[in-house]
């Protein structure tokens, strides 16, 4: 039987605001492998630079020997492609060596370009086979993080997809605007021709 990892996502603060209009709509997702599906929290609408979730995520089949890091991402929910706000990689040896194999810690976050900005408060607990709950430490610590190159490359890829989607949306909007202007110009031209025809008809009638 394997262990599981329970991560309670409490809150994040001092996030970068990636919205051009309005405020961040962030959610958090966590994973033990960059190539596998992440578990995610609910989205907090209009949260801006600070958000609270207080939601526990459960990562099954945790193997401490094969999965030494926890990958954490804060994402802004969009109507097209979601945009990364921040990320961090947490070495799990600090959890495994803690009393009760659990820690409650504040962890630094990094922006897409790798600059430290913001932090996230998590409780991380290893749950042994046959148990349903992990230890809940009351003391908060400053957690250890690392800037993982592979994780950053994943975040940069997500950012490129979001930027491409934004560009496509703007292009469509520009095309629609251009089309609308062309129709308006055509309508104005037709009205002008119609007006000229009416004036010509009136002139002809006066001559008769």
TrEMBL record:
Coiled-coil regions listed: none
Chain residue ranges for the region called Disordered: 189-208
Pfam families: C2
Limits of the C2 domain: 1-105
PANTHER family: CONSERVED SERINE PROLINE-RICH PROTEIN (AFU_ORTHOLOGUE AFUA_2G01790), INGRESSION PROTEIN 1
Record protein name field: C2 domain-containing protein
Species whose genome carries this gene: Linnemannia exigua
């Amino acid at each position: 039987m394997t262990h599981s990892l329970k991560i309670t996502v409490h809150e994040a603060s001092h996030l970068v605001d990636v919205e051009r209009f309005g405020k961040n709509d962030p959610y958090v997702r966590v994973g033990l492998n960059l190539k596998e599906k992440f578990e995610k929290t609910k989205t907090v609408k209009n949260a801006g630079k600070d958000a609270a979730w207080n939601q526990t995520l459960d990562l099954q089949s945790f193997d401490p020997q094969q999965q030494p890091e926890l990958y954490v991402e804060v994402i802004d929910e969009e109507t097209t492609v979601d945009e990364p706000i921040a990320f961090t990689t947490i070495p799990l040896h600090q959890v495994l060596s803690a009393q009760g194999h659990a820690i409650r810690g504040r962890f630094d976050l990094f922006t897409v370009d790798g600059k430290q900005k913001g932090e996230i408060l998590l409780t991380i607990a290893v749950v042994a086979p046959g148990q349903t709950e992990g230890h809940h430490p009351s003391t908060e610590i400053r957690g250890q993080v690392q800037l993982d190159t592979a994780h950053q490359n994943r975040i940069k890829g997500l950012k490129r997809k979001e930027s491409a989607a934004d560009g496509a949306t703007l292009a469509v909007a520009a095309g629609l605007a251009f089309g609308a202007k062309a129709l308006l110009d055509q309508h104005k031209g037709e009205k002008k021709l119609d007006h000229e025809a009416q004036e010509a008809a009136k002139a002809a009638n006066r001559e008769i």
